[in-house]
Amino acid sequence: MAPYVPGEQPQGEGWIKLNTNENPYPPSSRAVEAMAASVHSRMPLYPDPQSLELRRVLSERFHVPVEGTFVGNGSDEILAFAFRAFFQREGELLFPDVTYSFYPVYARFWQIPFRTVPLREDYSIAIEDYEGRLAGIAIPNPNAPTAAPLALARIEALAAAHPECVVLVDEAYVDFGAESAVSLIERHPNVLVVQTLSKSWSLAGLRVGFALGHPTLISGLERVRDSFNSYTLDRVAQVGATAALQDDAWFRETTAKIVSTRERFVSGLKALGFDVLPSAANFVFAAHPTLSSKGLLEALREHRILVRAFKGNRLERHARITIGTDAQMDRVLEVLQGL
């Protein structure tokens, strides 16, 4: 087995941590207060295995039936369940060759035959390349680590072209500029949308993800989950996630700040000669004019700034840089000017 390797989590203070796409702002105060209040005399009891209150809030927010919602211990867990539930069938599972590196880990773990589909020269996903006898399709929108979005019409065309298999749309970063595929679910019951509260909701430490789809797909996820652990979300996580999703003002303000900072930072990078791909995420995929991504990582690390570097001929020049606060990104630009 070759497991997924998470980004470095440094110990100690003074780091500018831009390597794991976390939100630089604290979560909604309503969520924090709700979590604190949830630690009371009911803690000796198991939490609701169905997470019904959280799922009702998701149902209201995304205009889908409660039966079309599923929650789990981060979107990674839901992705693992989905790979087991839907992709162990005849044919190949397809996903991009440059994408979330957990996909091949899941496929190998569940012994699912898969084929990676090369991105185009501009790092875009071409749905015309997703052909053959398919067990399923998994695509992130926006893609990671490229941050490139895929238009909703293209996702719908992909789902319509392959009604025989599940099209999993991983929307971990969708709130920073891409179009969600949730609106496709009613017309295309083979579409499963997976999101997380780790990025746009500042709750990476809480580990809450959710899926939206046709009730038949949700039932499949539930059967896989309950074969492992019926209590994947604890009481505090359920309460905190529910309160966070109800604080729409905080959500809109925070995501808008990150998008604004991203645009300022991209302008600064381009002024320094960087090649930066268009981003619809809370990170950018950028190439230094002379340094490799590893060289850039090492140079920034000397200033206690962490970014993510990648291997492979197509990726060795590009680094993935999370968007932090204005002050953090100004510091990064200051250091880059001296390299």
Descriptive overview:
The relative contact order is 0.17. The chain has helices spanning 29-38, 52-62, 74-86, 102-109, 152-161, 215-226, 235-245, 248-271, 293-301, 326-337, and strands spanning 16-17, 69-72, 92-96, 114-117, 134-140, 167-170, 191-196, 209-213, 275-276, 283-287, 305-306, 308-309, 318-322. A hairpin with an 8-residue loop joins strand 12 and strand 13. The protein has a 7-stranded mixed beta sheet with strand order 2-8-7-6-5-3-4, sandwiched between helices. The protein has a 4-stranded antiparallel beta sheet with strand order 9-10-13-12, covered by helices on one side. The protein has 2 domains: 16-26 and 249-337, Aspartate Aminotransferase, domain 1 (Alpha-Beta Complex), CATH 3.90.1150; 42-246, 3-Layer(aba) Sandwich (Aspartate Aminotransferase, domain 2), CATH 3.40.640.10. It has 10 helices and 13 strands. The two termini are 39 Å apart. The protein has 339 residues and is α/β, with parallel strands linked by helices.
Blueprint (SSEs and pairs):
Blueprint: E1 16-17, H1 29-38, H2 52-62, E2 69-72, H3 74-86, E3 92-96, H4 102-109, E4 114-117, E5 134-140, H5 152-161, E6 167-170, E7 191-196, E8 209-213, H6 215-226, H7 235-245, H8 248-271, E9 275-276, E10 283-287, H9 293-301, E11 305-306, E12 308-309, E13 318-322, H10 326-337
Parallel strand pairs: 1-11, 3-4, 3-5, 5-6, 6-7
Antiparallel strand pairs: 2-8, 7-8, 9-10, 10-13, 12-13
Helix pairs in contact: 1-7, 2-7, 3-4, 3-6, 8-10
